[in-house]
Amino acid sequence: MPDHTETGPVPLLWNAVDRLDALFRNRGPALFLDFDGTLAPIVDDPAAAAAPRTTLDLLARLASRMPVFVVSGREIADLRPRVPVPGIALAGSHGIEIETADGRRHDRGADFAGDAEAAAAALDAALAGLPGVRIERKRSSVAVHTRTASDSARTAVGERVAAVAAATPRLRLHRGKEVLELLPAVPWDKGRAVLWLVGTLGLAGAVPVAIGDDRTDEDAFRAVAEGGLGILVADVPRPTAARLRLADPADVARFLRWLDARTA
Prior knowledge:
CATH architecture of the largest domain: 3-Layer(aba) Sandwich
Number of domains: 2
Shape: globular
CATH class of the largest domain: Alpha Beta
Strand order of the largest sheet: 5-4-3-2-1-10-11-12
CATH topology of the largest domain: Rossmann fold
Radius of gyration: 18 Å
């Protein structure tokens, strides 16, 4: 994977539309989109997250003309009913599990279910009594959500999750936005998943466009930096490996409408 370090704040996409026209002049895009905070607004309860129907309709139209992928920290089993759009491939658990549009599966986490279950039990005990903390069990990983926790609880959560991670060597600790996750300790991330999809599905002739709001999306931005485009979703600028920025999920939908009109 190319090694591209983070840069300073990047401009809003709408101030650089001419760059997009030039980028897509001879090659069509392949879209790689995060879900939470990108297609769907962030909510306190992750189980309640939903992409607007209009956004899903846009994805369906775009998927009929170009490759469209959703690359999320959610498991595919969780993601699929939230993105019920034909023709879209899904990469779940930060790319560890992949399901292509034609049903092919690629799973690097299948052997870690026992580790995840043991870690979830240890986290139940370690985090008991901390208000606003939610533990999400997944098939091969565990997520600890802190969006509704107090600042003091977040500090305790960080220390206790790190201790559980240290005692579970087959899982690695990843710190995201308002979430800490214990993931399979394999050399894999969203960026590697994007490159695997590009290579496996023969997309070298397309412009890979990665759009996301979380730290995990930086891996995807770096992966597409040569020949593609990373777009950070953030209401204020911050250092990133992306080249352009959209403000929020509503702004992402606006970009999808622009792309829909451009490719109609």
